[in-house]
Structures are given as structure tokens and as C-alpha cells.
Amino acid sequence: MADELVAMMADDQYLLQRLFEAGELPSASYHPRMKALHERNAARLKAIIGRHGWPGRSLVGEEAAKAAWLIAQHAVSDLPFMTECIGHLEAAVARGEAPGWQLAFLQDRVRTLSSEPQVYGTQFDVDDGGWPTPFPVEAPETVNARRAALGMNFLEERLAQMIERERRRRAPRDQAPQASSDPDEKR
Questions:
Q1: Which pTM was predicted?
Q2: How does DSSP assign 111-178, residue by residue?
Q3: Which of 113, 120, 124, 170 could form a disulfide with 132 if both were Cys (CB 3.0 to 4.6 A apart)?
């Protein structure tokens, strides 16, 4: 099961990279190949959860547990399933079976897809100039306390990271790209 989850994550990231390189992403609509992969992966994750519960660290290991989160995060065609996964992740985080940032990202993704303000400020849009900007945040004056409670950096720090990543992306092609140490690079 762990190998299967990691392979699904690898397939997701491989296809995403190929579509970006081919200029097919970003696009105005959900790319049909990406959608099909996400839906296939979500169906398999549903089956795994139905049989074993949330695949946390002790069941499948760190990398496969991260893969389970990524699959849930990308199940955007099935908002009820994503919402169900929030409950599973809340319990997993409470038991130490998943890191808090995974819960924050999934909860914020569901809220932004539902046109609600996000809780943790993990989801970004782009402004008119193409620079990252967080989607609206509920009670922004306390967002950093909520982020800290889940072991995350301040929203201002995350925004600076996102802007720096975009700045590097825009750098002239003749400059050698810098290696990224950003854990969210493929999210």
C-alpha cells in the first residue's frame, strides 16, 4: 500500500511537470489528463481509507502518508471527499500521524474551492502583475497564531517565499536556476 501511494504521488508530480513543460499548464480549465489522474488516485485513496482508515505515518511511513495528503489535496473534482479527508487528517494530526501543515493546506483548499475565506493562508492566487497573493483569510489578525499552532511559519514569511520563487522563475533563462529548499515547491 505504501509503495502504491508513493507511485500515485510520483505519477501526479510527473504529469504536472510534463504539462507545465509542454505549455499546457497553467490553463483556464482543468486539464483533462490531470483531472483523470486525480480522479483515479482519489478513487483508490477512498478505497484505502475505507479499508484501513487514514494512511498515517505508522501505517505507511512518512513518504506514503504525504502521498495520501497530496492525493486528497488534488481531489478537487470531489469536494465531499476532500471535506471527509479533513476529518481524517484532524484525527491523524492529533495522534501525531500527520504534520499539521497537511491539515492546513487541505482545509484551506476546501474553503477556497467553496468560496469561503481560508483559515491558515496556504492558498495563493496571483495579482494583475502575476505575483502571488493569498486568497482571503478569515480573521487575518490571528492567522499567524493559527499557523504557529500547526508548526507553520508566519503568513508574511510564506508570502515572501512565494514572491522569491516567482522572482526566480522570471529570472533570465541564461542564468543557472538555483536549487530550491522550499518544502512546498511541488504543492
A1: 0.88
A2: HHHTT--BSS---EEE-TTS-EEEPPBSSGGGHHHHHHHTTPPPHHHHHHHHHHHHHHHHS-TTSPPP
A3: 124
Q: What is the pLDDT of residues 47-59, one digit of tens each?
A: 999 999 999 999 9
User: Whose grid coordinates read 482543468?
Assistant: 30
* pLDDT value at residue 172: 74
Amino acid identity for residue 17 in this structure? Q
Nearest to 158 by CA among 138, 128, 132, 119: 132
The CA distances from residue 132 to 97, 107, 161, 186, in Å, are: 31, 19, 10, 15
- Considering only CA atoms, which of 185, 147, 145 is closest in space to residue 165? 185
- Read off the amino acid at residue 126: V
Nearest to 160 by CA among 128, 136, 186, 184: 184
Q: Quick count: other Cβ atoms within 10 Å of Cβ 165?
A: 15
| Preceding amide of 26 cis, omega within 30 | yes
Instruction: Check pLDDT > 60 for residue 155.
Output: yes
The type of residue at 26 is: P
